[in-house]
Amino acid sequence: MWLISRAGSAVALAVLAYLLFWPVPIDPLPWKAPPNPGRTGVFAPNSLLAAAEQPMSTLGDGPEDIVRGPDGWFYTGLNDGRILRFDLDARRTETFANTGGRPLGMRFDGLGNLIVADAYRGLLSIAPAGRITVLTDSVAGTRFRYTDAVSVAGNGIIWFSDASRRFSDSSKGIMEFWESRPTGRLLRYDPVTRRTSVHLDTLDFGNGVAVGPKDAYVLINETMGARILRLWLTGPRAGQRDVFIDRLPGMPDNISFNGRDIFWVGLVGPRPARDEQVRALPPFLRKILFRVPERLRPVALTPLGWVIGIDTTGRVRYNLQDSTGKVWSVTSAIEADGWLYLASFAMPTVSRIRVPSPESSP
Fold it and tell me: Which one, of 69, 76, 110, 144, lies nearest residue 332 by Cα?
């Protein structure tokens, strides 16, 4: 019995030493959750997304973003590096290219090239015939760690995000959650001078990017800050930043502009109170929890489909939700021909729904 007791004490001490002192890759900072309105007011629960269609049962693993090309096809990137183009009505799909990395955000430039933010390879340009060119993969001699989203201005300038300077796409944002040390950036690439420059820094997982009307400003989502920032590009406020909208009840991923009056934002999910309580713990306690096996860590994503539409004044005009599990973890939404097309890194296919009238969605 004495030997068993001593052995048990030794094991307990070893476990305690592990939880307190084992090296971890995160170096957390204190964090305080921004106010959360929850699903109230203009964000009240509804079932509008439950009417979404899914003409194709599967496209592949992790269609993160979606864009419509000048050829009329839709394009999306998958976890295995492939970029597919597809026609939902004809139910046709084909491989357009394979980046050999992880293609995330994508938009077309004025020459018909597909500009891709590849988490591993940087900012890419893919010609209509499929030839891949790396436009940039570093700035000031330092490689990007998590090239995430992209938007092309009318003058050809490419704005894109590097979600983290510390962790690569393999963490899918989990490491930034635990560390709460904002290192995301908004960058600019000039295809004429081939120069890359940083314009916003210290973003809490800088994600979706969208250039606004007349190239007057560019928006960038802070996924873990639950807000959207604006950088003015023209006029008397050029070079200044402000908050376009904050206190979002969900985590914003990609953002797109419909070319008229609405920015569509995919919300990966609501902001669970439990997860934010974990992130708000003192740094040393977060280190202890991080040493717990991953399957036991108290972090989870609520399976809710959620898209919001925000007008150019920052007012929420559309609020589309689905709690049935048919559509969930929306990472991208684009508008085309009266339809709203939805992508998700957690679902194997793309959904679509007719754009409702603003009156039916506050």
Answer: 76
